[in-house]
Amino acid sequence: MSRSSMGRASLVMAAWLAQLTISTASGSAATAGDGFTTFKMLEWNVYWQNKNAWAIASTIMANNPAPDIIGLCELTVTMQEMAEALRGTSGRDFLAQPGRDVWQGYGTDIFYDNARWEALEGGAIRAGCSSWGGPRASNWVVLKERNSGQILITGGTHLSYCPGGCDQLQQCELRSLYSQFDAMKGKYPGSKVAWMGDMNQGMAEPMLLGALEGDLGGYRSFPVDEVVQANANTYMYGGPAIDHIFAERGSFQMKEHGLTGQGVTGQYLNGADHFPVYTVLTFG
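and the corresponding structure tokens:
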């Protein structure tokens, strides 16, 4: 887990916010006929020792409205068990991402509302990095919105935590993820990317500030903006927010964002040692 200091975060947070170019929209959600797609994403590190899929699902579905796309870090129940719990607690047809039949490492496992999205393809690969605390995975899925036909690429990862920092290792893990995103963007022209995960760093850290600009340590990719902008800790023991959602710069409007309001510092949240974060985005 991150041990980045709140003091350092406060010194550079203003600079980070000044860089944020994604626009914040207001008003009602887009309608099916206006050419735009509005959707809610939720990310949560549920803790690897937490095996209660139904408690996880109930916590997620307590949010109103419930998310359309869910990314879970450190999920160690089966994808099928988690999807069944999400369906059972929501009454909606949540499915697990394609291509994640075998555990490849700690990534961000994706679940989506099949009534809204068609999964075109997806996968998960083990990052070829000397990761700490277990292998890391890169998850990706290509989703087609059923009404508009617009293509969203999503997925994510869970970066290593290293006492004292390990920027080069974390850049290696991000390169593994972005190589999949870039391949999918080339295959699906006009597609947009929004992804999520536990970064084990706050947004004040130089490595993540570089990643916002597409600088992944010798690999250049598309710039993104952080679209949660949490103003409090996402790890139960405090510190800066280390769980994030990122959206391809210039491609989305951000309507809502933040922590879901679930969780108390110093206490587990239904077996999880992190608190969920979310964003509502529009693209078209």
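(Above: one complete record from the training split.) Confidence is low (pLDDT under 50) at residues 1-32.
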